[in-house]
């Protein structure tokens, strides 16, 4: 049967051979030349793989960054007792940590001195001295063995008694009396970001590619300068919402740089987005930090049940401190993302993987058709290994 015009060939590649019948001809082992739909599907899979590989000619490096921060601003707080307005700056309200900071938006203060006083924790409640073991440590200090009256009353109007302790007196109240600071939202945050892409050489070939947000520029809002309001709003929050309880969040500085275009074309995605770190259902809601202030703290006033010590390590006098509990947002910055650049080794690996995938796909398709297609298996085998014989009039096909 003459099949000279039955099939369209994309390429012509003949391999001389001798058949079992002694004829000289060519054997075609690739059914793709015959317009096989199975092979067409296999080709589609291969093309899909190429699409998934995407930038298979570029080496990928994870962005590794170093972030320096500087917070500036002025805020005011109105003292609830005296009515005086006090001015606070960043040195009063900001606590730094690696790649992050905490800024107080509200304060609760307790002026304390060393001495003896009733414990402030409910676990220190007592009816008599038997519940107060001398020398035992409690949440407020070390017990003296005395059960003393406090200024508190229970639901029945009865005076509450607590174990007396040695320590800083008076203790922190069970419920904080919080005062919100004004103008904290306008504090500015300057970010100094340096990012390295390990394994991707710079233009001189002397080190890794480096990126920085300085680039000789001045502090610029929206680029390397942000306000607290900006950062919180990017996470759907406001200073008013977090002021009294605090909040814990993270800013992802995300890179996706095509370094073939040069380091000047590389930049993080902006505006930044602040994400909440702590789940709202966690045991400790919000965020707060305690610290000691020693600025003109004065002396604590006399209180019922409180006896202040008049001896210090340096002689007569009082050891006094102002315990500050600050509520506010804790914000951390984290560099994420990748940089990509052309690499011959990556390209050759991608091409090799594609060729190997083609061979595996061919093997799997042929095995399925030859051994899992029932009555059609024999037909497929004959069709796959059909022989073409050269004649003066063209090529003819003969089934084996």
Automatic annotation (TrEMBL):
Q: Which GO terms describe its biological process?
A: calcium ion transmembrane transport; response to ATP
Q: Its domain of life?
A: Eukaryota
> Which cysteine pairs are joined by S-S bonds?
117-169, 126-147, 132-163, 257-266
Residue ranges of the TM segments: 351-372
Please give the residues the UniProt entry marks as glycosylated.
Answer: 186
Q: Which residues bind ATP per the record?
A: 70-72, 188, 288-290, 325
Q: Write out the GO cellular component annotations.
A: endomembrane system; plasma membrane
An example of a Pfam family matching this protein is: P2X_receptor
Q: Which residues form a coiled coil?
A: none
Residue ranges, compositional bias (Basic residues): 1-11
Which stretches does the entry tag as region Disordered? 1-24
Where would you find this protein in the cell? Endomembrane system
| Sorted UniProt keywords | ATP-binding, Disulfide bond, Ion channel, Ion transport, Ligand-gated ion channel, Membrane, Nucleotide-binding, Receptor, Transmembrane, Transmembrane helix, Transport
Q: Which GO terms describe its molecular function?
A: ATP binding; channel activity; purinergic nucleotide receptor activity
Q: What family is it from?
A: Belongs to the P2X receptor family.
PANTHER family linked to this entry: P2X PURINOCEPTOR, P2X RECEPTOR E
| Protein name (database record) | ATP-gated cation channel receptor P2X4
State the organism of origin: Ostreococcus tauri (Marine green alga)
